[in-house]
Amino acid sequence: MVKREISVIILNDKNQILLQKRSENKRSYPNMWALCTGHVEENESFKEAAIRELKEELGVNIKFNELYSLAGGKFDIYEENFITKFYIINCNLNEKNFIIQKEELSSIKWYDIDKIINMIKNNNNTIVYKKNRIILFEYLLSDKR
């Protein structure tokens, strides 16, 4: 069975990305910063999973037409037993206006994209992403999106 997952880039008008600090109780990547990410349930589409995860983890209600595939799927990951699809939404809530799911997250923070890229380049052990993901964040800085 193929494991299906989504990641949602939450971008504000200041060109910052909302990162979530994973709970210390998480089996994988505890206490590390990451995008809103989750598993797709059996009878659920990728987009439905993204909308559900945003609601569960952050208290954000969005409509289908507010969620877009990032770069038409250019950054989606297809491996033998694993698929991850990336989505993007625009959101300008203040950090204190999110309702975080304490079982999953310990905090959230808006980060400048440059800072995220530097964290990855410097092998910062507080962020989930490795150097092979820099291209995704660089794309968000480009005029192409």
How large is the share of residues in beta strands?
25-35%
Specify the helix fraction band.
10-25%
The CATH class: Alpha Beta
Largest sheet: 5 strands, mixed
Any idea of the CATH topology? Nucleoside Triphosphate Pyrophosphohydrolase
How many domains is the backbone divided into? 1
Low-confidence stretches: none
Question: How large is the count of helical segments?
Answer: 3
N- to C-terminal distance: 33 Å
How does the SSE layout of this entry go?
Layout: E1 3-11, E2 16-22, E3 33-34, E4 36-39, H1 46-58, E5 68-69, E6 77-79, E7 82-90, E8 105-112, H2 113-121, H3 134-141
Parallel strand pairs: 1-7
Antiparallel strand pairs: 1-4, 2-3, 2-8, 5-7, 6-7
What does this structure look like?
The chain is α+β, with helices and mostly antiparallel strands. It has a single domain, classed as Nucleoside Triphosphate Pyrophosphohydrolase (Alpha-Beta Complex). It has helices spanning 46-58, 113-121, 134-141, and strands at 3-11, 16-22, 33-34, 36-39, 68-69, 77-79, 82-90, 105-112. Strands 1, 4, 5, 6 and 7 form a 5-stranded mixed sheet that branches. Strand 6 (77-79) and strand 7 (82-90) form a beta hairpin. Helix 2 (113-121) packs antiparallel against helix 3. It is globular and about 40 Å long. The termini are far apart.
